[in-house]
Design a protein that fits this description.
The protein has seven helices and eleven strands. The protein is of the alpha/beta class. The strands form two sheets. Strands 4-3-6-1-2-5 form a six-stranded antiparallel sheet. A five-stranded parallel sheet has the order 9-8-7-10-11, sandwiched between helices. Helix 5 runs parallel beside helix 7. The protein has two domains: 88 residues, Elongation Factor Tu (Ef-tu), domain 3, CATH 2.40.30.10; 153 residues, 3-Layer(aba) Sandwich (Rossmann fold), CATH 3.40.50. The longest helix is centred in the C-terminal third of the chain and has 13 residues.
Length: 252
């Protein structure tokens, strides 16, 4: 089912990375879920899934997208101006949610590991009270190519100020080594940061099957590498029939 939505605001993080804020009536959703957007087509509908970045109680739906030059939908979304109409699926979906994690008290540390627009569902979760009430330490690892690809820095900085002892942010920028606006980042890929131990050293928290939950979203290659490393450490994939410590969502 589809409903008509309207773009009421947009924010361009770089020449390709952008956020659309959409006014649309959809069913209640859970932080971490995604909706589908479509411009509609009389011959064949072109629709793509986009994670919701806004919190469930927000008035507007925020989606973070990147313009893919040969994409079937993203170039058209990138051209949308304020006031433009867009079709939105009326019901969100997806299982990359905090509700799907095991609730055992021993899981004290929550790792969010993301590349690119995969940070979207984690921003949505961080905008709710749920993770802050449950976990002693929350670590957001955010990997991108360039500093300009680090979206939602204002939200992240606000969380750092609000939860200075509880929240750790680790940006990873692979194609720029010079810090921008005073922000220093690791200049390696996420799997390399795990192998070297730099990620856990910065977080001052070890990833352990005893007390850690790890949620991973973004580039499939990164997800496969990180999952393999975590499995070798004794963590297991989280399934409803067999609770574990690794929950993931691949973006393509």
């Amino acid at each position: 089912m589809w409903t008509q939505g309207q773009v009421v605001a947009r924010r361009d993080w770089s020449d390709k990375l952008f956020t659309l804020s959409i006014k649309a009536e959809i069913a209640p959703f859970i932080a971490g879920q995604f909706i589908k957007l479509s411009q509609g087509n009389t011959d064949k509908r072109i629709a793509r899934a986009y994670s919701i970045v806004s919190a469930p109680d927000a008035e507007l739906l925020e989606v973070l997208a990147v313009k893919v030059p040969d994409g079937q939908l993203s170039p058209a979304l990138h051209q949308l101006a304020i006031g433009a109409e867009i079709e939105v699926s009326t019901k969100a979906a997806g299982f990359l949610t905090l509700e799907e994690l095991p609730q055992a008290a021993n899981y004290r540390h929550l790792w969010f590991i993301a590349t690119g627009t995969g940070v979207g569902p984690f921003i949505s979760m961080l905008r709710t009270q749920a993770p802050w009430l449950k976990y002693e330490k929350i670590i957001l690892v955010y990997g991108v190519s360039y500093y300009s690809d680090l979206a939602y820095q204002d939200v992240i900085q606000q969380l750092q100020q609000q939860y200075p002892q509880q929240f750790v942010f680790i940006p990873m920028v692979t194609r720029e080594s010079k810090a921008v606006e005073g922000m220093a980042a690791l200049d390696c890929r996420i799997p390399q940061g795990l192998v070297s131990g730099e990620l856990e050293a910065l977080a001052q928290v070890d990833i352990s099957p005893l007390d850690s939950q790890v949620m991973i979203c973004g580039n499939p290659a990164m997800i496969t590498e990180v999952q393999t490393m975590l499995l070798e450490r004794g963590l297991t994939k989280n399934l409803r029939r067999a609770p574990g410590q690794i929950t993931l969502e691949k973006y393509w």
